[in-house]
Specification:
Blueprint (H helix, E strand, L loop, with lengths): L3 E4 L2 E4 L4 E7 L9 E6 L6 E6 L6 E3 L7 E6 L4 E6 L8 E10 L2 E5 L3 E6 L1
């Protein structure tokens, strides 16, 4: 069993930056893809970015491509999301997730709020 806990959210002005972290309680290297999702106010949860087990490949949702960077440090059991050039539409609760079985996000964090003011 792996527990995930996000941190690093907050209030930032448009154009600013934030770095989210996700700490895993267990050995994160046993997880396959890890990802960030977000849920904007009044909307469904949506995919933001994902990274493969050893970090060799990443993928991003189109609206964050070139602004957000996902990375992982398996030795430290940490997943990151560097968010630059933030926009008000990036306002959401951000969740990290991990796959124990490829194709299924088995583990989820509790979420961290990111609010971008215009």
């Amino acid at each position: 069993q792996v527990q995930l806990a996000e941190s690093g959210g907050g209030l930032v002005q448009a154009g600013g930056s934030l770095r989210l972290s996700c700490a895993a309680s267990g050995r994160m290297s046993r997880l396959y893809d890890m990802a960030w999702f977000r849920q904007p106010p009044g909307k469904e949860r949506e995919f933001v970015a994902a990274i493969s087990r050893f970090g060799s490949s990443t993928r991003y949702e189109d609206s964050v491509m070139g602004r957000f960077t996902i990375s992982r440090d398996n030795a430290k059991n940490l997943l990151y999301l560097q968010m630059n050039s933030l926009k008000p539409e990036d306002t959401a609760v951000y969740y990290c997730a991990g796959e124990e079985i490829p194709g299924t996000y088995d583990y989820w964090g509790q979420g961290t709020q990111v609010t971008v003011s215009s």
